[in-house]
Amino acid sequence: MVPNVIARLRTTGFLLLLLGGQLLIVTPGHADLDESRDSSFDVSLYLLGAAMTGDVAVGFVQADLNVGFDEIVDHMEFGVMGFGRLRSGHWSFTAEFMYMGLGASKDFASSNFDQWIAEPRIGYRVTPWLEPLAGVRYNSLSGEVIGSLGRNPSGTQDWWDPIVGATATVPVSRAVSLALHGDIGGFGVGSDLTWQAHPYVDWVFMPNASLQAGYRWLDVDYEFSKPAPGRAIPWLGSGDYDFRWDVLTQGPQVGVTVRLR
What we know:
mainly beta, 10-stranded antiparallel beta barrel, 1 helix, elongated
């Protein structure tokens, strides 16, 4: 567990450096906050290809699903997400929802999971190109792990993670901009550690509509253990009931955003 946490902290440090580097190449003169728009409401819908790599466990059955980057496409499934964002002056409130059907296999182990995510967050635009944010991420996972002995346990687990992060935007032209959304959280409240990075290109093709294309990484290290209720779950027998989700989900993402006046 400790080496995994250290590795994630190193990855998080790299992402923060990447975010900082992006901020350094931006100057406030690239864009001005449009104070004439006191409020607006955006609705977005995204499709994403999602591949999972990592370690999962349900009950006494564990699966090591780490695969090479060249195998990501072979393990990729799909998901859908959307969000609504209310903006008033410098403040914004975003409610994001995501569903992903995830599956992977390696050697004699495989898993299939459905993941639901709900993420309310608040942001404050401190400059035209930087918006820090804070919120919570609700995770709900249900699925099964098939081990080498053919046991087929299933389980469901849900939890909340506090998160902090930021979105940085670099205007390239009047219609095109580069953006990076990133956050980190968990801190032992729910997950031991979770982080997310989502770089993307935004193209405003109509006054009130834009297209986005990018790539998303979502890493979660969560573990739960309790005495096994043998009668309620006969296949567990005695001992502890374990649920572990130490998984990096990643894949390309495309979407559209419409601004409602």
